[in-house]
Design goal:
The chain is of the alpha+beta class and 198 residues long. The protein has 2 domains: 76 residues, Glutaredoxin; 105 residues, Glutathione S-transferase Yfyf (Class Pi), Chain A, domain 2, CATH 1.20.1050. The chain is built from 8 helices and 4 strands; from the N terminus they run βαβαββαααααα. The protein has a 4-stranded mixed beta sheet with strand order 2-1-3-4, with helices on one face. The chain is globular, with a radius of gyration of 17 Å. This is Glutathione S-transferase family protein. It holds the Pfam family GST_N. It comes from Vitreoscilla stercoraria.
Length: 198
């Protein structure tokens, strides 16, 4: 397998999954310009990462890649080791992180694409940060309502987004359960290996 990545991007999640699964794989590190080359666009017309190439079978989007890896490597328990309902709940939080949190954090990185003036960008970022705090608070409530379990790939994903949030000085210090999860994820050997390789 070959995984195309960008440093510190959402592709970290797929890298961790492959590491947890002990899957033989090659990581191809791109820069942003590399995702727009004719060669890469011929593989992935979306021009984004991650892209997983499994002997010519090409998959984009983290959710699809993780579902594929979960089927091939069930022993890795990417979505937890529970029954179908428990795994579906983990997938729900993964999807929530992807569609709600990740998409909003993208606005913080690309505010100039949405509004022109510095004042408008500052206002947009402030509004998005407030919305993000509410979304992270939902994660925190979810964690408070359950006993601590083995880490899942959804936990890794939300922790990765928290790294991005820190880059934009989003204060999440009041979310105690979420911060405890973050520390657990960052202490995971596979996560440490992947982050060190960025």
């Amino acid at each position: 397998m070959k995984l195309y990545t960008l440093p510190h991007a959402g592709s970290i999640v797929a890298q961790v999954a492959l590491t947890w699964a002990k899957a033989e794989h090659e990581v191809v590190k791109l820069d942003f310009a590399g995702t727009k080359t004719p060669e890469y666009l011929s593989l992935n017309p979306q021009g984004v990462v991650p892209l997983l190439d499994d002997n010519g079978f090409l998959i984009t989007q983290n959710m699809a890649i993780l579902n594929y890896l979960n089927q091939i490597y069930p022993e890795a328990k990417l979505f937890g080791g529970g029954d179908i309902k428990a795994q579906t709940q983990v997938q729900q939080w993964f999807a929530f992180t992807n569609s709600d949190i990740h998409s909003k954090i993208s606005v913080l990185f690309k505010a100039a694409q949405w509004v022109e003036t510095d004042a408008a960008q500052a206002s947009l970022k402030a509004n998005v940060k407030a919305q993000l705090h509410q979304l992270y608070a939902l994660w925190d409530q979810h964690l408070q309502a359950q006993a601590q379990k083995a880490l899942t790939i959804a936990d890794v994903y939300v922790a990765v987004t928290m790294n991005w949030a820190k880059m934009h000085a989003l204060d999440l210090s009041d979310l105690v359960a979420l911060n405890a999860l973050y520390e657990r994820v960052m202490s995971d050997p596979a996560v440490q290996t992947v982050l060190a390789a960025q």
